[in-house]
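Write out a record, focusing on structure:
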Amino acid sequence: MTAILKVLDAGAYSTFQDMGRYGYQDVGVPVSGAIDRVSARLANTLVGNSAGAPVLEMLLQGISFEVQASSARVVLFGCDGALAISGPRQLSVPAGRTVRVMRGDTVKVTSLGRSLCGYLAVEGGFDVPLQLGSASTYVRGSIGGLEGRVLRRGDSLHLVKPDVQPGAEKELADPFDYGYEQAIRVVLGPQDDYFTEEARQAFFSGEYTVSDKADRMGFRLDGPQLSHADGYDLVSDGIVSGAIQVPGSGQPIVLLADAQTTGGYPKIATVISSDIPVLARRRPGSAVRFTPVSLEQAEAIARDLNVRLCNIAEYGLREVAPAGVLDLAALRSENLTSGVV
């Protein structure tokens, strides 16, 4: 029997993503992939999938769906929202905790909270065909995911597993810091010499705001104007995720997963790979501050983050009682009498 999640409300901008489509930038195809790869990876970790399994990425608001499979185990991660489950059971499951849902259940992502993005992973994974080696959706090129587009009401999201075993659920043993207040670390360049000294100082001393022109291609920021030293046109060169272009307006644009592969504006700095997910969680209106690090520091931070994520997968999960079942172990760990005998 076909196992699917039937989309009832597709949200504002929901797509299938994985860790990206590599090896095709030379022919103009962006890498794409999850804009918050840390959260996508941890969502997969919680349900026992490989780090690069396809997940559902939701921007600004979540989706709702009906379970049309014997059972499925799902998790929401990357935000401080929750899953509201309606059916024979009425449950609310916080983000970061897995839950087994049953045929006929309706599941709604109630909110993404403070985060721009959230990720839904399912045990065994979504059954999504690969294009150019990836399941990631690049909407502007109609590549990958579900017909190369955002999800719509009525879509069927096919599952690899038609049924999952009952048992304990999982969550992270320690709270995860999404870094909403963290300064975003950058490496200067490659064209910081195209800017005045005053512009470089303003870039690091000022505060920017994510504008309403923020999507998977990039974030336009509002804040201190950055003056070019001698014009802002240059011969187009390669773009990487995290590159911070500054056009003639003097307002920076941080390029993200779906960014073009080449660009002709000077790039004052580049967000380090470890902090791209941190920035990607910022909703329009959120504050952004930048702080410089060296290339060597950026590499060390990336290694440390990878070790941390591997350690979470190996040692950093704990089992919890299934939703709707009394967790006696948790009760015994609390002082319920408050001193009354």
